[in-house]
């Protein structure tokens, strides 16, 4: 999972292959060149972020896109672990999920998510959402530097 450190890195934590492909395509369709690293479950995500095992030397992401409904370790658990870890808590996290459940929304913000977005099943709308995320978070916002 080596990445070009001159480009921003987006860490996509998503188990649905179709959504992974669509989000990657949406990111490719923008003018900003970025690296996309994918984890398909919560345990793999935390191993990557903590640079454990096969992920030793992994690049710290500039932005995390997190699905809530993940196998092995739920996205809510991943969010809580990241936001309580001093080495990781400053990485911006956007929950990008199909859930529109108010409890999920409140819980995510209680856990200090930076933004909560419900995925659209409309392809054009999903592309618009992903391009907006990339434009705001990687071109407009000032992100914390690597520690």
TrEMBL record:
UniProt-listed Pfam families: Response_reg
Highest taxon, organism lineage: Bacteria
Modified residues (4-aspartylphosphate): 67
Cleavable signal peptide: none
InterPro entries in the cross-refs: CheY-like_superfamily, Sig_transdc_resp-reg_receiver, TCS_response_regulator
UniProt-listed SMART domains: REC
Keyword terms: Phosphoprotein
Gene3D superfamilies in the record: 3.40.50.2300
Ranges for domain Response regulatory: 9-134
CDD domains for this protein: REC_Rcp-like
Protein name from the UniProt record: Response regulator
Organism listed in the record: Almyronema epifaneia S1
The organism's taxonomic lineage, starting at the top: Bacteria, Bacillati, Cyanobacteriota, Cyanophyceae, Nodosilineales
């Amino acid at each position: 999972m080596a990445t070009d450190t001159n480009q921003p890195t987006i860490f996509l934590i998503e188990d649905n292959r179709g959504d992974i492909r669509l989000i990657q395509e949406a990111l490719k369709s923008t003018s900003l060149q970025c690296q996309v690293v994918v984890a398909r479950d919560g345990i793999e995500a935390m191993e990557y972020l903590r640079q454990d095992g096969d992920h030793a030397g992994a690049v710290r992401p500039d932005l995390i896109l997190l699905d809530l409904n993940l196998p092995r370790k739920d996205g809510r658990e991943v969010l809580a672990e990241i936001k309580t870890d001093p080495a990781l808590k400053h990485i911006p996290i956007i929950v990008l999920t199909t859930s529109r459940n108010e409890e999920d929304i409140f819980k995510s913000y209680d856990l200090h998510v930076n933004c909560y977005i419900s995925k659209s099943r409309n392809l054009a709308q999903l592309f618009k959402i992903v391009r907006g995320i990339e434009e705001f978070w990687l071109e407009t916002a000032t992100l914390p530097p690597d520690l």
